[in-house]
Design brief:
CATH superfamily: Dimeric alpha+beta barrel
CATH class: Alpha Beta
Number of domains: 1
Strand order of the largest sheet: 2-5-1-6
Strand content: 25-35%
Number of strands: 6
Distance between the termini: 12 Å
Order of helices and strands: EHHEEEEHHE
CATH architecture: 2-Layer Sandwich
Number of helices: 4
Shape: flat
CATH topology: Alpha-Beta Plaits
């Protein structure tokens, strides 16, 4: 079955806005979101090939050297479905975009 990389994206400004909320509000959102995230993973366990994880700050390597960088990537997951559209449909109600300040999930096929 084809595998797809699902990359969680978030605008740095949206994360900063979330982090500027009072701690009690952040904790309340986290409590709801993490519970829903676990439920989402349980519902879709048959499709999840690699649970991946969340990622932190970016270090970029180019021909000019190593430097700090900013991108919208904040995590990833690998799923197995028949099509990219089927993979995308898995994420329509994902708490990354319904509870947390995530702005999307990019779905990309692994090429053979």
């Amino acid at each position: 079955m084809p595998r797809f990389l699902a990359v969680y994206t978030m605008n740095p400004e949206d994360l900063a806005s979330f982090r500027s909320l009072p701690k009690v509000e952040q904790d309340a959102i986290d409590a709801v979101g993490l519970q829903q995230w676990t439920a989402w993973e349980n519902r879709n366990a048959n499709f999840i090939h690699d649970r991946g994880g969340m990622v932190g700050k970016t270090t970029r390597v180019t021909k000019d050297g190593i430097s700090k960088a900013v991108n919208p990537f904040c995590g990833y997951l690998v799923v197995e479905t028949e099509t990219a559209e089927e993979a995308a449909r898995l994420f329509e109600d994902h708490p990354h975009i319904t509870v947390f300040p995530g702005d999307g999930v990019d779905i990309m096929p692994f090429l053979s």
